[in-house]
Amino acid sequence: MGTTSPEAKELDSGARSPGSAGRVNPIVYFVSRYIFATDHKIIGLQFLFSSLIWMAVGGLLALAVRWQLAWPWTDMPVFGPWLFADSGGTITPEFYTMLFTMHATIMIFFVVIPILSGAFGNYLIPLMIGAEDMAFPKLNMLSYWFMWPAFACMILSFFMPGYGPAAGWTSYPTLSALIESAPGSGHAQTLWTLGLIFVGIASMLGSINYITTIIQMRAPGMTMFRLPMTIWAMLITAIIQAFALPVLTAALLMLLSDRVLMTGFFIPENLSVNNAEGVAGGGQPLLWQHLFWFYSHPAVYIMILPAMGMVSDILSCNSRKPLFGYKPMVYSICAIAVMGFIVWGHHMFISGMSRILAVSFMVSTMLIALPSGIKVFNWIGTLYGGRLRLSTAMLFAIGFVSMFIIGGLSGLVIAAPPVDIHLHDTYYIVAHLHYVLFGASVLGVMGSIYFWYPKMFGRMMSEKLGKLHFLLTFIFLNGTFYPMHLLGARGFPRRYADPYEMEGMAELMPMNEFMTWCAFAMGATQLIFVLNFFGSMLFGRRAGRNPWKANTLEWTAPSPPPHGNFDFQPVVYRGAYEYSHPEVVELEGDVDYFPQTAGSAAAVSESQEV
Amino acid sequence: MSRFWSILFFAVPLLAIGVYLAAAFGAGPFAGAWMPESYSEAGDTIDHLFNFIHLICAGILLITGLAIGWILWKNSNAGSDKPALFVHHNTRLELFWSIIPAFILIFIAFYQMESWAENKMNRPQIEVGGESVDKPPMVLVRAKQFGWEFHYAGEDGLVQTADDVYVENILVVPVGEDVVLQLESRDVIHSFFVSELRLKQDIIPGMVQFAWFHANKTGELEIACTELCGWGHYKMKGLMRIVPREEYDMWIEQQTLAYQAPMAVANETEEENGGGTP
Q1: pLDDT-wise least confident of A30-39, A128-137, A306-315, A326-335
Q2: CB neighbours (10 Å) of residue B97?
Q3: Interface contact B104, partner A, CB < 8 A
Q4: Does A285 contact B9 at a Cβ distance shorter than 8 Å?
């Protein structure tokens, strides 16, 4: 416990105080402040901006997928004529396989994981625990730098034959291992593999930093059980990443070696694809699935736990009520993290792995639903009896809970192996994962942006535009994703460039058209957010230190906080959720919060006068 | 304004369940967007599990969803000075909502095991010399980019022998019998899916998988590939015809006369220097 010494701050080469900036060449200033940035807040914002840009790219890819599903083989507007001049803009099947492969890869590895851990983790961890910066600022800088080779690999892969990698985001061998197996399985697939290795290194460096910072750098008085849920979630997420990522990195290196060095980890003997010459072989394609899901199932929790933590904080603050069941919430997160490592096989029920093993994976999967359920009940318990302040952030947080319930319940259905026989690789799976990843994670991220924006940029976002953004996103996301459950029940297969090739699926076309209209409307709705996000930077109302009257430490720092964060040494006296504490409610004025730094109720009323 | 948001969140569980019910009963625009008619008893059990688990889910969705809506509705009255409840936890409540869901989850876990065993573990048996052995496969299915090869067992009742009958993309099977398929892949991972039979099995190159079913209706069904296998994944479809036994026997005889399995032709070419009949 403790904070960095002032000397450490001086040594920090990335920082120039604003005063000295005037004498420095502006290019040097920009490079040192924004490229060689070691300040956790700048790095957090770097992650935030790059993730938001990638989100736009991933979203456009999704809209192209939706176009093909609603009106297959018709000319795609805008991008179509430009990409496929000779066909007038019709998507080719190769292009379609690239679309969903890259949509998923980008959304998972370049948007949701970096925006949660990279952006909010970096920005909030030191601020919420009362530290000046991360434990290893240079390592932190390196962690963002490693994203750029990954970006370069992914962008380059679009220009390779086959329009890009096309083996799905899961890249199952032998489709991904044998160059001849698909148009996109050449250099594009190699670049995809390299890109993910770089992303893995970036996350790994970040996670080491987060764990060390949270354990070592808490302000005096900040015991583990006084930490806000956001920090608990970030800590557990970082631990999951540290344990699971090496496995993915190893698997990716094996895949790379199969592709480049002609080894045969994942390629069985005597296999010839597309009449190409046979390769060494002797491997086992299932091995990849085990290694991949050993990472990628915990990754599901990497993509939801931080959002759960932040939503807990938003709900408690905006209900003006203590978080209900703080300790059960902490224990649930820990249980999810531990059990998350023994459920990966539920992605492989019908993959051809041992069918007896499927039963044990089913039981562990059923049991992991329990801590998730406990969290939902506690969130509702937090709302109950509160004085709800329905700000945009709060609406997104309630939306998160509401959508997470649906996503969690559909998870229960496909956790049953016999039912999964029918639903596996159909749109039911697509519905489930989008309810969890979009309905929950992305709504959580949106809520968090609205909530912490005043801290990040010193100004408030427009609540009117925010609420409109929420309302439309919420309606259209359900319009887009809910019918997918029904398609899945019918057996509508995923990853089909033209599902209507199957006679039985033809009657589902009108439903797909409806979903595509909703998807386009949802995409357009995000323009409101872009407008609000950038407009508020210039025209937003000045926020002050604590616009939400919140308890946690980041709200005692200036908005935006300077390098080094706090203009005083924060000392923590209580937990993060003492809203409507009887001692402060009795005070004069409309005070209903008890900041973690306030030694007594009297201190709260003093701070009000200042 | 709180009322408005309350209605929005009330609508979530109600619409979610309403849409499901409409789809289950094939109402209006939802016609056809539900489980297709099942063609086997094992499939009926899967449908039962699907409905049963969804029913439990609907209950949980109603309780939690309506609670959220109701809390928001109540909140619109609370413009008063009354402070929010100051409670941190309630151990009895925590125990209540941990233990009851735990029992429900464990019940679901055990309730479905038999169906899994029936579909994927207990392969149909036959009596051979008083001993019960695995029923041999009737058809060897070889998946490839982008189509299906079916090698039917000939008179010897075994696949991968000289009298195999080879047909592409059409799988004919007798109704009312246990049919065992041997699944192999020639190139990448594929998956054999017949939605009406609730039958799906991934096919891994280098591995041999077995799948089985017992159809109780005749009809023509579509075989789909449900593991991404390349650009032509979407058009890798086959036709499955479930027919009475007599019709099957007649059909297989016609095929035997019409074709020779490539394997048999190859063997004969080697032995008799091209003496095989086409």
Answers
A1: A30-39
A2: 21
A3: no
A4: no
| Element housing A583 (H / E) | helix A582-585
Identify the DSSP state of B209: E
Closest residue by Cα to residue A575 from A224, A318, A125, A305: A224
Looking at per-residue pLDDT, the higher value among A291 and A20 belongs to A291
How high is the mean pLDDT of chain A? Answer: 91
Residues 6+ apart with CB under 8 A from A330: A225, A229, A232
One-letter amino acid at A336 equals I
Global pTM?
Answer: 0.93
C-alpha distances in Å from residue A485, one per residue of A438, A517, B33: 15, 17, 9
Question: CB-based contact (8 Å) between A473 and chain B?
Answer: no
Classified as helix, coil or strand, B112 is: coil
Distance from CA of B177 to the nearest CA of A (A): 21
B37 contact A CB<8A? no
Alpha-helix residue ranges (DSSP H) falling in B84-149: 91-111, 113-116
> Would you call B5 and A395 a contact, using CB atoms and an 8 Å cutoff?
yes
Confidence of residue B258 (pLDDT cuts 50, 70, 90): low
A484 touches A515 (CB < 8 A) = yes
For chain A, how many residues are written?
A: 610
Angle at B15 between CA B9 and CA B18, to 5 degrees: 150
The CA-CA-CA angle for residues B133, B137, B139, to 5°, reads 170
Neighbours of A578 (CB within 10 A): 23
Instruction: Tell me which chain A residues have a C-beta less than 8 angstroms from the C-beta of B230.
Output: 97, 166, 175, 181-182
Query: DSSP character for A256?
Result: H
Do A274 and B20 lie within an 8 Å CB cutoff? Answer: no
B125–chain A Cβ distance below 8 A for any pair: no
Q: Does A502 touch chain B (CB under 8 A)?
A: yes
Residue with tokens 């390349």: B230
ipTM for the complex shown: 0.91
Dist. CA A8–CA A3, nearest whole Å: 10
Please give the sequence-ordered ranges of beta strands (E in DSSP) within B170-237, or none if there are none: 170-174, 178-185, 190-194, 199-203, 209-214, 219-225
Phi, psi (deg, nearest 5) at residue B201: -150, 125
Query: Do the beta carbons of residue A241 and residue A204 sit within 8 Å?
Result: yes
Six-digit token pair at A258? 């199969």
How confident is the model at residue A402, as a pLDDT? Answer: 97
Residue B235, exposed/middle/buried by CB under 10 A (0-12, 13-18, 19+)? Answer: middle
At A63, the amino acid letter reads L
Residue A55 and residue A438 in contact, taking contact as beta carbons nearer than 8 Å? no
Q: Is the peptide bond before A18 cis (omega within 30 degrees of 0)?
A: no
DSSP for A396-408 reads HHHHHHHHHHHHH
Q: d(Cα A400, Cα A405) in Å, to the nearest integer?
A: 9
Q: If residue A284 lies in a helix (H) or strand (E), which one and from where to where? A: none
Out of A92, A380, A425, the one facing B226 most closely (by C-beta) is A425
3-state helix, strand, coil in chain B (%, to 5): 45, 25, 30
Please confirm whether the linkage preceding B146 is cis (ω < 30° from 0): yes
Cβ partners under 8 Å of residue A10, min gap 6: none
Distance of alpha carbon A401 from alpha carbon B68, whole angstroms: 9
Question: In the predicted model, what is the mean pLDDT of residues A8-17?
Answer: 42
Place of tokens 């004969």: B268
Residue A319 has a pLDDT of: 93
Span A390-403, average pLDDT: 97
pLDDT 10s digits, B40-96: 999 999 999 999 999 999 999 999 999 999 999 988 655 566 778 888 889 999 999
Report the amino acid identity of residue A532. N
